[in-house]
Design brief:
By secondary structure, this protein is α/β, with parallel strands linked by helices. Helices cover 50% and strands 9% of the residues. The protein is built from 24 helices and 13 strands. It has an 8-stranded mixed sheet, sandwiched between helices. A 3-stranded mixed sheet has the order 8-13-10. Strands 1-2 form a two-stranded antiparallel sheet. Helix 8 runs antiparallel to helix 11, helix 16 packs across helix 18 and helix 21 packs across helix 22. The protein starts with 9 loop residues before the first strand and ends with a helix.
């Protein structure tokens, strides 16, 4: 059937809320301008510290709100029709697909999790001869290589099992762990094999060494012998091991298996390695020497495939002749499994992937979210008019001496010297948030992207289940985002000019997110300290300006609530999401902002710290019960604990003042803010006062917070 007569591969439409968003934005803008005007008039009559800080806070809130509206102008939804793909291309003509999986630390990212991700994508509903999986082990651990050797042996049984029984959940851990998974005649046998493999891998990781009995052939022994005493995670030669090769290795039914390649790029102390972006660029070059597939999928180590037809959904865009030829990548949402009932840390990222990114999809397209994106390989080699066409022509064995020599060469630590890699080619350097930085520059060059959000999640990953990891992860992101925001490619300047006004503002909102720390911190402490010092900084309830404050608060919160709930979230989840946002604003964003400023003047340098994927049993139980996990003595808890103490004291003081004066009119807004904070801080009070489990707030943090809160109150008494 001719492509022009074929049924559509996908459809696109504007969400109904777009019109309402635009009207609301116009009305809300007037209220913001009125408030800023009120602040300036107030400054003319009285230049107090409080009035200056309130103007600063509200100006930043206004700036961020303005950027946020860019997402709300053209929210878009799409639908794909995989069943129509056969009308456009035969299965044998599908483009090659190289899958990149990144891991960095076998202690924080257990090899069994990485292994499950690899097995799930090896089982894609995709021509085996077109599929290759590359693992980047940036920790350079032989334990990870051993785990993948075990995975290769298990894959010989797992892949035909999935193919024969049309298994949908092709991550072994998820399949066997599901309470309602369908059982087939060979299920018990395959499960026993999986559990045996898991025991061996976990035993090796626990011991930190590989039992010689686990090594089955000379090739494995030779590969593992490359780890010498001088080999360290930060200083070692390149290690590239072809574990499986299509055409030479078979499964138990005689079918070929996908290529599986282990890559640990060379690291040296005198060469920068650029963290994840550097690892991905090494995979780009190594894969180019071996398979050079025109399409690349990037995945985090814990983001396993939940739908074997996901590559076909991506092809519905990449192979559609009616699509813009500048289409560079297809982004799928990040969805997380194991989130507790009410998502106490706001870890499912619903607001971002269900509300914000569809708004970018109606513009130049969504950002690269770090995982779950199908790229055209050519996007990494220049703008649409200059990037070379990528034709996959593999006429050699990827185990040949010539290919391996070339692969080791391009994985060298000095290969990028005096080249455009990281600047004009590949994933871009200069930020810990390499995903945002890369997509912003790609779109600035003219590339477009689309968002594919199927009903069945394409990929499932893990989210932190303790507050410390959650806050540290957000702090690391904050530093990376600020590096983008204040770079020469800042979205607010370069992005607006090169991508377009609305798309530039979307990126500005995302990259300037850490400056939320300023208004959140001001509103968490200033009104409360003023209340404790009997200072009035807000209008009385009888003052018309009181209505402006109320309208702005209810308007912002109300719109966000409706967006969250309409996307499928519950009221309780929304409440926890906004509380987690406040906590991150006080701690993660504040620490990230300070760290970025120190780094900018050369005083400090933040190293990349992988978020732990290790789950402890007792910690997991508390998480599933909805109990906040503090547990460790960390300064990142101090701002949250101080805010909890000061807001509680201020709220009680405000109530007492109102009772004495028999009127709350003068201090209503200040008492309300303190009370609002007290309700949000309830888990903190529980952890401070009456919890006895290992996840309680350490006494040391509580005592330091009390001392610092008293010092802050004493200092404020001189200002009011």
């Amino acid at each position: 059937m001719a492509a022009s007569q074929a049924p559509p591969l996908h459809t696109k439409g504007l969400m109904p809320r777009a019109g309402i968003n635009r009207a609301f934005a116009l009305v809300y803008s007037c209220a913001i301008l009125a408030l800023i005007y009120h602040h300036f008039i107030g400054l003319l009559h009285s230049t107090s510290i409080a009035s200056i800080f309130l103007l600063l806070a509200d100006s930043i809130l206004a700036f961020m709100w303005m950027n946020l509206q860019a997402f709300r102008m053209y929210p878009t939804y799409r639908q794909v029709f995989v069943e129509h793909l056969e009308h456009f291309v035969k299965e044998g003509d599908y483009p090659g697909l190289d899958v990149f999986i990144c891991t960095a630390d076998p202690c924080k990212e257990p090899p069994m999790g990485v292994l499950n991700t690899a097995l799930s994508v090896m089982a894609f509903d995709y021509p085996t001869e077109k599929l290759s999986i590359y693992l980047s082990d940036d920790g350079g651990s032989k334990l990870t290589l051993f785990a993948f050797m075990e995975a290769a042996r298990f894959a010989a049984h797992w892949l035909p099992y999935c193919r024969k029984n049309k298994v949908v959940e092709r991550c072994p851990e998820a399949h066997f762990g599901s309470l309602d998974h369908t059982s087939f005649p060979e299920t018990d046998q395959i499960k026993m094999m999986y559990e045996s493999m898991r025991d061996r891998v976990e035993n090796v990781v626990k011991r930190g060494s590989i039992n010689i009995d686990y090594i089955t052939n000379e090739e494995e022994s030779e590969a593992l012998s490359r780890w010498t005493d001088a080999f360290t995670p930060g200083n070692h030669p390149a290690v590239i091991q072809v574990i499986l090769e299509y055409g030479k290795d078979k499964d138990i039914t005689g079918h070929g298996v996908p290529n599986l390649v282990y890559v640990s790029r060379e690291k040296s102390r005198d060469s920068p390695h650029h963290f994840k972006a550097g690892a991905l660029n090494a995979l780009l070059r190594v894969s180019a020497t071996m398979t050079n597939a025109p399409v690349i999928l990037t995945l985090d180590s814990d983001m396993y495939s939940n739908d074997p037809q996901t590559p076909l959904r991506a092809l519905c865009y990449l192979l559609d002749p009616s699509m813009d030829p500048k289409l560079g990548f297809v982004q799928f949402p990040q969805v997380f499994h194991g989130i507790n009932k009410n998502d106490i840390y706001g870890g499912d990222m619903r607001y971002g992937f269900e509300v914000l990114i569809p708004g970018m999809d109606g513009l130049a397209g969504p950002l690269f979210a770090g995982s779950g994106a199908f790229f055209r390989r050519r996007v990494f080699y220049g703008c649409p008019s200059e990037a070379p066409k990528m034709n996959q022509e593999v006429s050699h064995s990827i185990k040949s001496r010539e290919v391996l020599a070339m692969a080791h060469n391009v994985a060298g630590s000095k290969y990028e010297n005096q080249t455009k890699w990281g600047r004009k080619m590949g994933f871009r350097y200069g930020s810990l948030a390499e995903d945002v930085f890369t997509s912003c520059q790609l779109q600035s060059e003219g590339w477009k992207s689309v968002y594919c959000n199927p009903k069945r999640p394409a990929f499932l990953g893990k989210s932190p289940i303790n507050l410390h990891d959650c806050l540290n992860q957000a702090m690391r992101w904050s530093i990376g985002l600020l590096e983008v925001a204040f770079s020469r490619y800042s979205p607010i300047t370069f992005g607006v000019r090169s991508i377009g006004l609305l798309s530039g503002l979307c990126y500005a909102f995302l990259t300037f997110v850490p400056i939320w720390a300023i208004p959140i911190t001001i509103y968490a402490f200033l009104p409360q300290l003023a209340l404790l010092n009997s200072a009035l900084i807000f209008p009385k309830t009888s003052n018309p300006w009181f209505c402006v404050y109320v309208a702005l608060f209810l308007g912002a919160y109300g719109q966000e609530y409706l967006e969250y709930v309409s996307s499928g979230g519950s009221t309780q989840k929304w409440w926890n999401y906004q509380r987690a946002w406040m906590m991150k604003g006080l701690s993660s964003f504040s620490f990230g902002l300070v760290e970025f400023l120190l780094k900018s003047i050369g005083i400090s340098s933040f190293g990349f710290n992988v978020t732990s994927k290790v789950v402890q049993e007792e910690q997991s139980k508390r998480y599933q019960q909805g109990i906040f996990e503090f547990g460790v003595t960390s300064p990142i808890f101090l701002p949250i604990t101080m805010a909890a103490i000061i807001n509680l004291v201020a709220f009680l003081s405000g109530i007492a003042q109102s009772c004495r004066q028999r009127s709350i009119e003068d201090v209503f807004l200040q008492v309300f803010l303190a009370g609002f904070a007290v309700v949000n801080c309830w888990p903190v009070y529980e952890a401070m006062a009456w919890r006895t489990d290992q996840g309680k707030l350490p006494l040391k943090i509580t005592l330091i917070s009390v001392v610092l809160s008293w010092a802050l109150y004493s200092a404020s008494s001189m200002a009011f």
